[in-house]
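Dear Dr. H.,

I hope your travels went smoothly. While you were away I took the liberty of generating a structure for the chain from your last submission, since the lab meeting agenda had it listed for discussion. I wanted you to have the full record in hand beforehand rather than looking at slides cold. The sequence, exactly as received, is reproduced here:
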Amino acid sequence: MSRASRTVREQTRWYEYPDDPGSEIDPITRRVVGGSLVNICDEMGHKLTRTSYSSIIRESEDFGCALLDERARQLCETDSTPLQMGPIPAYVRGVIEIFEERNETFEEGDVILHNDPYHGASHAPDFAVVVPVFRAGELTGFSVTTAHHLEVGADKPGTCIIDTVDAYSESVRLEAIKIIEAGERNETAWQLIADNIRVPDMVMGDIKAQISAARVGAERLTGLFDEHGHDTVKTAGAAMMDYSERVLRNEIEALPDGTYSAEGRIDGYLDAESDAEKDVFLGVDLTVSGSDIEVDLSRCDDQLDNRPINMPFAGTVVPAVLLVVRSTLLDTETFEAVPQNNGITRPVSVEAPKGSIANPRFPAPTIARFCPGNRLADLTMKALAEVVPEKTCAGIGNLKIATNSGMTDDDEYWVYMDIISGSYGARPTKDGLDAVDTLYANTRNNPIEDIESHYPMRVTRYELREDEEGAGEFRGGYGPIREFQYRSDGRVSIEGDGSKYPPWGFAGGEDGSPGAVVVEGEIDESTPRSKMSNEAIDEGQHIRMVGPCGGGWGDPTDRDPQQVREDVLDGLVSDARAEAVYGVVLTDDREIDGAATAALREDG
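The corresponding predicted structure, in token form, is as follows:
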């Protein structure tokens, strides 16, 4: 049977791994090969950032790079955005499934483009570029890049689409398309994609950057085979997976068996007529049994058939849960860098009923899955706080994502997406982090200079909130205020959450503060708002986005008075709040009045 006539599953199962890879390779070689694999992914990431066109990749680093074996088991990844890297094995499994259905096979020189949320993608704007890697004519692995694209041909400009009806209206659908086939560019596919997006130069340029980075990964992996031998690299990769699994299982096994639960709500659509579209319920039941963790999401609300806040199960929900379990139990302050690979996924299973918001049925839209997924991660952390409070933090402030768009004088679209940070909750021994992307986001702030030099927008305000933190012995992080002024007429869409429900406090700490979205000229700024759908903005008009403040940890009156004083000096806490909430009295020259503070705290 020729390779070209074999099915994908036959083609991807040719390598026989030893039953115990760790016994087949010495630990030094295993670590050398493992380090080399990570270095390859890091090089892929640098290549992608330096050759991409859009700020979301170049500045915010909203991308992922990974190497996988022929069974779609992840070997290693770069250090970027967890929500981009976590789904990569699911992307490749989705491509394999689609190829099986079509009776297609992988060929040397292929480049596959894929963004189907029902076959592994995180959501439609996150494109994966998959390059199969061959050795002696046989498929032996995959080099993969994923990245967020700022325009994907939805029914509205940009990718913050919060009002659309199904998967067909939220993007151009790319189901395992060979845009390069056996080394030959598929011109029809390239032209079809370019003709269906509003900013083709930027998007097609970013796709080319992804291809270049993925090809670098494939070339470097081939070079690693040449250096150490194919079997040695494969065995080392399998041994590294077993090592990561073993380390995580040891930590799980140290936990008391039992079921730990958390629940909460997301804003959803606060102005909707239907109750089903607002105050959406999420529930997490996390069961520890021996060295296994099972996360049951069956209490989550049903999917919303015509609202895109549904979460793709394999591409969003599973990575969100795995991120929290892994980062909580394998904190890098305690452990060496445990490789992020397929082994990490083995001790953790996630279940969600089909048709729920955590596992929707096709063709329910999913493009706005970010905020619900991050809230699900937050609740997973809250469930873990019952059993390992010393390793968690209080509730996080969720992010907002804004797509700004308009037309140039030449009747061409411009599209810019800005990520408005949230904050972390306080920890058992430290304050929460201020104005950062939380949990599975981990993207970077886009510099003001980059925004104002490329788009008709001005950043008129960028600062931390004041007097809004979740108070505690350790306070929650401060969310940012970020305000834009349009220098020409345009439109804005905002995908956000957390304007009604504040981040949760823990162990006596107070809840944080909700966020807000405020458009200049609105009559009622007091009504909570977290989303906007392609609304017109006039030249000169301002829009202000406010990030939530994280929850507090511990009794606020147990906070070190000196820390309260420092927050007052930094302009984050007022004298009145210091006295009323923390029981700290300051003199006129901002020194601590020890006697008055002791008396106030004793009376309180």
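Two observations you may find useful: The chain has three domains: 3-14+24-244, 393-556, 560-604. Residues 404 and 492 are 5 Å apart (CA to CA).

With kind regards,
E. W.
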